[in-house]
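Hi, here's the filled form for the chain we discussed.

Project: internal
Contact: R.S.
Residues: 89
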Amino acid sequence: MKVYIEGQGERDCTITTTTNSSRSFLPVPLPKECMLEVIRATLMNPDAQQTVYLGASVRHVPDGITVEYKNGKMHIPYPLVFPLIMQDA
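And the returned structure, exactly as it came back:
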């Protein structure tokens, strides 16, 4: 499984997961850099169960994080979160 965030213009991004047999998308109305900062902020504060910014939510779960926006949700396991947040560092 691979996870990456693609910028979709100045105001939006899409979180994408791919496997050998499928691809899933979660569009979020935040710039890519902002979405990465929300994920980093959530990881840096283990006492916070959830970080919400402009309707997008990043929540700690036992084996990773869950990103939610409106009716969409994407689970990202910890081994894939850390390369994701370092992709543009």
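Let me know if anything looks off before we file it.
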